[in-house]
Amino acid sequence: MQAVKPVEILTVDLSSREITRDKIEDVELIKKYIGGRGIATYSLLSSMDPEVDPYSPESPIVFAPGVLTGTIVPCSGRTTVLFKSPATGRLFKTNVGGHFGAQLKFAGYDILVVKGRAEKPVYLYIEDDRVEIRDASHLWGKDVRETNRLVRKENDDPEVQLACIGPAGENKVVYASIQVSIYNAAGRGGGGAVMGDKNLKAVAAKGTKGIRAAHPEKFMETVAGLWNKMNEVSGVKPLSDYGTSIGIESTNAIGAFPVKNYQQGNIDNVKYLTGTYLVEGGFLKRKISCYSCPVACHRFVTVDEGKYRGVYTGGPEYETLSALGGGCLSTDTAGVIKANELCNILGLDTISTGNCIQWLMECKQRGVVSDGDAGGLDLTWGNSETIIDLVGKIAHRQGIGDLLAKGLKAASEELGRDSYKWAIQARGLEQSRVETRSAFGYALAFAVNSRGPDHLNTECLAEFGGSPEARALIKRITGSEEYAYPHTTEKRADIVRWHEDIYGASDALGICAFPTTAQFWMDEWDLAGLFRNFTGIEVSHEDMMRAGRRMIVMERCFNAMLGHTREDDVLPYRLMNEIQHDAMHDNAINSAELLDKMKDEYYALHCWDIEKGLPTKETLCELGMGDLIEKITGYIELK
Fold first, then answer.
1. Ranges for all domains in the chain classified under CATH 3.60.9.10
2. In a designed cystine with 273, which of 229, 321, 344, 421 is the match (CB 3.0 to 4.6 A)?
3. pLDDT digits over 278-325, tens only?
């Protein structure tokens, strides 16, 4: 039997300029945590001081491509990035596609850990065994496109793949993104600010070592089976044709499209914010794929006429069209594309950026700020020019942009005057663009999410029952299709936990969440087969789901060591205290009573301490995580 390939870890200390290589060869450990997000999280929880400042040189940032990243498995181009977030003060995982992760794997590395702080701007260059810390003074201040161009030019190689930051990261905007393959964003939580604090402009990777499966023939058979499944499901072609914004019109029709900073559930002329209109309006020039992805849901668009003529960028995705469009009460397609272009090349998370601009516009609406406070910008709802100007001001921390660059939690605390009530954030993270008052599974998922209120730990799309595959999945999870209905609290805990588990397993393998949690053509049996035939390690579908659950538990424990309990499992004030009157159901609100009921069921399903919302020692031991108890109980008391 072929020996199991160890997990190869490359560590770069920017302070000492020391470069080290380590291996994890423990088969049981690999089986328990899979790789990628799983092993990287375990390593941080085991060794990192949870109380370290996000901007301390000792606070690492970790790039962890999935086990299957770089293979021919469809949709397997994902990379997890882990760090302590300057926005939330908690452990944060974000995930990104593109082609960077595959090149890091081709160079021979499963995990890259960067710590320390360089004395001056640098970038890492990784090419197989060659790892260099190079001067990046000439790159500092450059945008993402120019940084990619210059690094590729000086290495005389257009195929080098970068994970880099723009001016927003250099200026430590707390929601600065890390941009991969130019237009793919590890956007949430401020990883770009962590890189900026380390004076790390970019990581450039290229590899030639290749990747081999332990059982090539069986692996190829499993991959072929997935291609057949993909071609049979209903959701793949619409996503490929029209991108992630395919559902905006239907969401708007049921009053669940977040508009005007969540004051409304729909908007007139919504068609101008749809993927269909990007095609019919002539904006879409081509579709873009992440590594090994046949779906190609990403867009590449241009503006060919009007005042924004000449704009070109990746996207915009659903979240961007909502955050910088409908959320700001704008249906100006070209204006949204321009704002999206600036976020991409300046290195900003479009979700947080849009939410901050909406909040400021509502502050004007409510008389808390004036146009004069914003340097004369017209803060009227829907003003595209103001939205675009504010994106630049945030990235460069100019004028009112400096306040917004701190994130909604800090900005609303600083401004005061009840502005926290319309700051759509919880725990320091601006909420992603789901109207949780019309989707109670999402409401629970967002409340307990270790990141904060967003969808990229637990994508519960199936609860809407929008396809035969979604309804079949809900029946498998709950026992009945009747629970494929989002306006009930019943069985939400079961639905959320299943999605958390498979999302964790997908992340660790490097597989996009769409096949498992949005289109439903990969399941836990498929994931187990892929892992088993690629690594040679015997696992069952139950092993894969338990591995995903361990990731949720580890993230929970890390944040618990910083004081997180069930009292912190909340949603933004507006969503918990104001009814959404455009919704298609009565009492559309994420009240404390509604959340408490679902939280009790969720904690009980996990066998956690319901009073505190924390794992117990017994739960940790049952999951085979007893070795972490001593570290955790050094900070908090567990039952």
1. 7-206
2. 321
3. 999 999 999 999 999 999 999 999 999 999 999 999 999 999 999 999
- Computed over every residue of the chain, the mean pLDDT equals 97
Amino acid at 276: T
CATH 3.90.190.20 fits 238-430, yes or no: no
Instruction: Say if residues 467 and 234 touch (Cβ distance below 8 Å).
Output: yes
| Strand locations in 31-84 (E) | 61-65, 79-84
**Closest among 495, 425, 436, 509 to 95, alpha carbons compared:** 509
3-state SS assignment for residue 391: helix
Q: What are phi and psi of 214, to 5 degrees?
A: -65, -40
Question: Does the pTM exceed 0.90?
Answer: yes
Which DSSP string do the residues of 337-388 spell out, in sequence order? HHHHHHHHHHTB-HHHHHHHHHHHHHHHHTTSS-TGGGTT----TT-HHHHH
Bridge partners of 184, per DSSP, are 180
> What whole-number distance in Å separates Cα of residue 154 and Cα of residue 100?
18
Parallel/antiparallel/unpaired status of strands 122-127 and 200-206: parallel
Assign 496 to helix, strand or coil. helix
Alpha-carbon separation of residue 60 from 45, 171, 189, 191, 239 (angstroms): 12, 19, 14, 10, 36
Integer distance in angstroms from the first to the last C-alpha of the chain? 43
pLDDT at 2: 52
Q: DSSP string spanning 522-584?
A: --HHHHHHHHHHHH-----HHHHHHHHHHHHHHHHHHHHTTT--GGG----HHHHHS--TTSS
Enter the tokens of residue 493: 């805990």
Candidates 105, 2, 111; CA nearest to 62 is 111
With 0-12 / 13-18 / 19 or more C-beta atoms within 10 angstroms meaning exposed / middle / buried, residue 571 is: buried
Contact 98, 290 (CB under 8 A): yes
Which of 1-5, 223-227, 317-321, 553-557 shows the lowest mean pLDDT across its residues?
1-5
| Dihedral, 327, 332, 338, 340 alpha carbons, nearest 10 | 30
Q: Are strands 178-180 and 161-164 parallel, antiparallel or unpaired?
A: antiparallel
Listed in order, the ranges of the chain carrying CATH 1.10.599.10 are 436-633
Coil, strand or helix at 316: coil
Class in CATH terms, 7-206: alpha beta
The model's pLDDT over 191-206, given as tens digits with 9 standing for 90+, comes to 999 999 999 999 999 9
Amino acid 344: pLDDT: 98
- Which regions of the chain carry the CATH code 1.10.569.10? 238-430
Asked, as a colleague might, if the bond just before 316 is cis with ω within 30 of 0, I would say: yes
Q: Under DSSP, is residue 606 helix (H, G, I), strand (E, B) or coil?
A: helix
